[in-house]
Amino acid sequence: MLEKLAIYGGTKVYDGNWPNWPQSTESTQRNVNAVLGSHRWSVSGQYRGQPSWEERFGQEFAVYTGAGYCVPSSTGTASLSMALEACEVGAYDEVIVPGVSWVTSASAVLGINAIPVLTDVESKTGCLDPVAVEHAITSRTRAITVVHLGSAVADLDRLVAIAQAHSIPLIEDCAQAHGARYAGRHVGCFGAAGTFSMQHSKLLTSGEGGAVITDNPGLARRLEHLRADGRTLSAQPPGMDEMALVESAEIMGNNHCLSEFHAAILVAQLEVLDEQLAHRRRNAAVLDSFLVSLGFLPQATAPRTTERAYYTYVVRLPQSIVETQGAERFAAALSAEIGLPCKTMYSALNHNRLYKPFSRNRFELGKVFTDAVDPSLYQLPIAQEFSRSCIALPHRMLLADTSAMEHVAAAFEKVARLIDNRRT
User: Fold this and answer.
1) Which terminus of the chain, N or C, has fewer Cβ atoms within 10 Å?
2) pLDDT tens digit sequence for 242-260
């Protein structure tokens, strides 16, 4: 009997139970229950005699990353918007954005009426290309944003040097890189600010949430105002049942506060983050060796990366498969073999169906602006090739037993061998 792909009715390579995500611990439940019983569910709620969970998480995440300050926020998008505004980026300013990323990298720039300048990436990492950055800088450039994508860390030495040479703030988007380190330091600590997302799928998650880290005290104070409607935490503990936020009103802000429930979950999740990261790294190394021998190319990272964080396990497919079958078809067949959602990479932002500035009236700020934010202006050949050639597997796969990596490799081999035969 001819062997068939599982997507066409054949037997799966692996039918095991994969770890779920997110994962709750006893500390998670204990912390949430503590919030429920505290009668303070927000940092803007009445003071109950002890620091808020938001303050506690901010302090602990600053210590974890080695940053001087951490300002929690409601989402990763909010954290990026706050960081840009704290660096005084505003209307009609240009912000360099990597060509491969989640749509928020560009839409958050639009959200503060600035212009995203879509910039090409490095072929092996998918991260912002320093050479392309040099070419993209103009007299109107007010910030450079770099995304540490998938499991890769961008070339921070070169990007920091460029930012410093041009006196332009570098903002690191670390939404996919909690725990990653470059030259021994936590990512997010190299630029003016580092932004994080704690959305459901992230390596450190509370369902939704975010944070900005920085070593600059002035920037940290601006961030505090921007996230709490122009208010900051009082220098001294307030009286019972009073509000801990004071109306300092140095800058008008918005409400981007993290709820006490989210902050309490993050405090608990931070306790197990390093253990989970180490487990993923061990399994990724095993899977790398299998796939390289089969002709697949796992995502590379910058040379001075010292610790990778695997938000997704990204693999470049052989060009013969890309050209004849396509990454989307390969990913669907692989998903069927191992029972995991394997996806293609994000589309390059100049062709990304989620990035549509003209679909919202708020961005109709005149012809100069609308012309400048037209995604079709940009040519991103490397970003487009990276997107069409790579697939991404979820990080919960890497929390399984190491023996499961053999099954994943066997599935890659089977799909590569049989995908030409649509019904066999």
Assistant:
1) N
2) 889 999 989 999 999 999 9
